[in-house]
Design a protein that fits this description.
Layout lengths: L2 H9 L3 H10 L1 H12 L2 H18 L9 H28 L17 H4 L2 H6 L3 H12 L4 H8 L3 H24 L3 H6 L12
């Protein structure tokens, strides 16, 4: 059986076929999950939750040929949910932090050379730009595939990609010149007072 036949059997209720079909895409799922979650444990948990949701919703897939796209879409939603949950947990625990100082040497923060880390820069982008860049350059998806996954027009995905790359370039240029990351690197790029792209 090929992957489309496995998917068709899975949609009809064959659990063995479902798990065999998921097995085909497991590396891609893990790669995307890791690129969002940034650690192995969280990535594995997100993949596990995705498999559970795929199993629960398997009969809702109308076109078995779109199984991979459908499953990745579920994975991305699970990743976004988990990141929101972690952010809420961080905010509630940040009030417990004591002894914080603005002096980076006293907080044992990494030096400037370590801050010029591409992953850290990508992580600082707005989520829609980060998502498109990760899918395009880390997962090697085409613009059309990304547009299908995100249920957005190709033009919107291209715009997000262009703006995200522009922000990355300006941030890295600002760091290279020694400017303040937030103010120097992103000034004049359509950011409002809140720092959110307009």
């Amino acid at each position: 059986m090929d992957k489309d036949e496995w998917a068709a059997a899975a949609v009809k209720g064959d659990e063995d076929a479902l798990f065999r079909r998921i097995e085909i895409d497991k590396r891609q799922l893990y790669g995307i999950a890791y690129s969002y979650m940034r650690n192995e444990t969280d990535a594995m948990e997100v993949v596990q939750e995705t498999v559970c949701r795929v199993w629960a919703k398997r009969r809702s897939l109308l076109d078995p040929k779109l199984f991979t796209t459908w499953m990745i879409r579920i994975l991305i939603r699970v990743c976004m949910d988990e990141r929101k949950k972690k952010r809420r947990e961080m905010v509630s625990s940040s009030s417990e932090l004591q002894g914080w100082t603005e002096d980076p040497t006293k907080n044992n923060l990494p030096d400037v050379a370590e801050r010029i880390d591409m992953e850290a820069q990508i992580k600082g982008l707005p989520s829609k730009y980060r998502m498109v860049i990760v899918l395009k350059y880390y997962r090697d998806l085409t613009i059309t595939e990304i547009a299908e996954l995100l249920e957005k027009p190709d033009g919107t995905v291209r715009t997000w990609l262009h703006k995200g790359l522009k922000l990355l370039k300006s941030d890295l240029t600002a760091i290279g010149k020694g400017e303040d990351h937030e103010q120097g690197g992103r000034k004049g790029l359509g950011r409002g007072a809140s720092g959110v792209a307009e």
